[in-house]
Design a protein that fits this description.
11 strands, single chain, alpha+beta, binds flavin-adenine dinucleotide, 541 residues, 7-stranded mixed sheet, 13% strand
């Protein structure tokens, strides 16, 4: 008897020239760029914790859970079997297991529970790593994390719930907060007639003893099984922010009805619902009439998270492409030895490192905001710039990385298909592309010191960056995308010149600031391909 057991049963051929499964790796220790960013931005102390997360993310267990959570999607249960409304969602056990893991890792809490400088950078690195495990659970984790920023506008409410919001436990039971070990927070803002323009909010809040009653609908409400959620409604004072419990203190469901779950393109492990509020009991957060402003601090955090999530997705997609190309042979050579494939992969590697540095720089500015006024000003602009640019790169990188796997990439059993479907999401929620670029314009106007600070940070590093700084697009609505792109590329080039190996930084500057190819794989032939490819996993490709 000959051949491997796995080939047994095929009369016509042996299975060969397929890459081994990419599991059992450490997503942190095999990522030299991440290590450098964590060190550069003051979170070197978190290295052990990040290494642990990296090992878990790359484990066969997490990769299998991620597959299951996305294949066996959540199911709406409006009623129990006796006909009573329960307005519940049944998630696959894999989702719950992953949720337990990210809570234990502190993805929802680290920036608040740890007071050392660098805490937000360490959490950002966790977000980037976990985006390579399963992206769906990132949504409840970041909403829970960011809710603290909104709830600071209502200190007495925050004091009531904070310890359980930040608890490392995971408790999915449908019970009122007092009976739970840990709480998750969601948000329901978007209505049918407008998600970007929240001034169109139609839900109405009537004052009653002890709070308000809300009547209206929300068109998108993700993780509707959350214990608490922030929402917007109109009062006499204008659009205001509210916090509602999913279950009232007596154990009954708060006055809401889940209508449908969205049948989404990606992000399938997660449940996004449509909901009716029918006298929902809620408490005011912040000043009446200042609801949208109250949410801005929270949006600042979630926008940075979108960039980090997309940087993680880009890393995972390129890692899969590199892995495949190192093992698959065509025309007598491994794919990674084929000159044109080397060009494509090197270009993707540039993109991955660029996405990491830009999003981590935004996290670093957030981290330093509390102690450094300049960083606070820079943070205001870095967050939307990183959110726009990194999120916009994710779908094109995912598509190219998928193609590196050939037909396998297009098949659902391979993770690339999932990444491809997930890739556009970070670009469109928490402010779609145009809305974010208009926010960049607003930031330049409202924080006039940000632009000179940025210019200082970028100047004198490379003649091409200095030239780039003289080509600023107009600060008009029509040019807001061009302006944001100009900022993103200039900032990234400077970051790479400061922190990345010289061949990689030089390749980025030469191709991104000086009219490189319009698609991946058109790097000039004299690029240092070996050095760029070797940087990705920290070893020769
Ligand atoms: C999977 C998923 C989950 C979601 N979960 C939630 C959730 O939990 N809670 C929640 O509240 N929402 C959620 N959303 C909704 C999301 O936040 C909104 O879809 C998003 O804010 C955009 O709003 P909209 O769909 O109404 O689009 P619109 O506001 O109609 O925007 C449509 C397009 O017009 C552009 N645009 C808008 N204004 C301008 C302008 N002034 N100039 C130029 N262009 C403009 C936008 O950039 C966008 O491209 C979710 C969405 C998805 C896809």
């Amino acid at each position: 008897m000959s051949g491997h057991m796995t080939d047994f049963g095929y009369a016509t051929h042996e299975v060969r020239n397929q890459p081994p499964e990419r599991v059992g790796f450490n997503a942190c220790t095999t990522d030299p760029a991440l290590g450098a960013a964590v060190q550069a931005f003051g979170a070197g102390w978190a290295r052990e914790r990040l290494d642990e997360a990296g090992a878990l993310v790359g484990s066969a267990q997490v990769q299998a859970l991620a597959r299951d959570a996305n294949r066996f999607t959540p199911e709406l249960q409006t009623h129990d079997r006796f006909g009573r409304r329960i307005d519940w969602v049944r998630f696959h056990p894999a989702w719950h297991e992953l949720m337990g893991m990210v809570r234990r890792a502190g993805l929802h809490a680290l920036g608040w529970t740890e007071t050392r400088p660098g805490a937000h950078v360490a959490r950002a690195a966790l977000a980037y790593l976990w985006a390579q495990g399963e992206a769906g659970v990132g949504c409840p984790a970041v909403m829970t994390f960011a809710s603290i920023a909104a709830l600071r506008h209502a200190p007495e409410i925050l004091a009531e719930y904070e310890a359980k919001i930040l608890s490392p436990a995971y408790d999915p039971r449908p019970l009122p907060p007092a009976q739970k070990q840990a709480l998750g927070v969601a948000m329901a803002m978007t209505e049918k007639q407008g998600g970007s323009d929240l001034r169109q909010t139609e839900t109405v809040a009537e004052p009653v003893a002890g709070g308000y009653q809300l009547t209206g609908h929300k068109w998108f409400f993700s993780v509707p099984t959350s214990d608490l959620f922030l929402t917007l409604a109109r009062t006499r004072g204008g659009i205001s922010c509210f916090l509602a419990q999913g279950w009232r203190d007596d154990g009954s469901r708060n006055f809401l009805q889940l209508q449908r779950l969205k049948d989404k393109c990606g992000n399938r492990s997660n449940a996004s619902s449509e909901v009716e509020f029918r006298g929902l009991e809620a408490r005011l957060v912040g000043e009446e009439g200042r609801g949208i402003a109250t949410l801005l601090d929270m949006a600042h955090l979630t926008r940075i998270e979108c960039a980090l999530g997309s940087a993680g997705l880009i890393r995972q997609a390129v890692a899969e492409a590199m892995h495949h190309a190192r093992h698959r042979r065509a025309f007598q050579r491994r794919l990674i030895e084929q000159p044109l494939m080397r060009n494509v992969l090197a270009d993707l590697v540039l993109e991955s490192e660029a996405a990491l540095w830009l999003s981590m720089r935004a996290a670093a500015a957030l981290d330093a905001s509390a102690r450094d006024e300049k960083e606070r000003s820079l943070s205001r602009i870095l967050a939307p710039v990183a959110k726009y640019w990194v999120c916009k790169r994710a779908p094109v990188v995912a598509a190219e990385a998928l193609e590196c796997l050939g037909g396998n990439g297009y098949v659902e059993e391979h993770v690339l298909a999932r990444l491809y479907r997930d890739a556009p999401l970070n670009g469109l929620w928490e402010g779609s592309g145009n809305v974010i670029c208009l926010d960049v314009l607003r930031a330049l106007q409202r924080v006039p010191e940000a632009e000179p600070l940025l210019r200082q940070e970028l100047a004198g590093l490379h003649p091409r960056i200095d030239g780039w700084l003289r080509q600023m697009p107009a600060a008009t609505e029509e040019s807001a995308r061009a302006l944001t792109e100009w900022l993103a590329l200039g900032i990234t080039a400077a970051l790479l010149c400061r922190h990345a190996p010289a061949p990689l930084a030089e390749a980025f500057v030469q191709t991104r600031l000086a009219g490189g190819g319009r698609h991946f794989g058109a790097l000039p032939g004299e690029m240092p391909f070996e050095g760029i490819l070797g940087r990705f996993f920290g070893e020769a490709a």
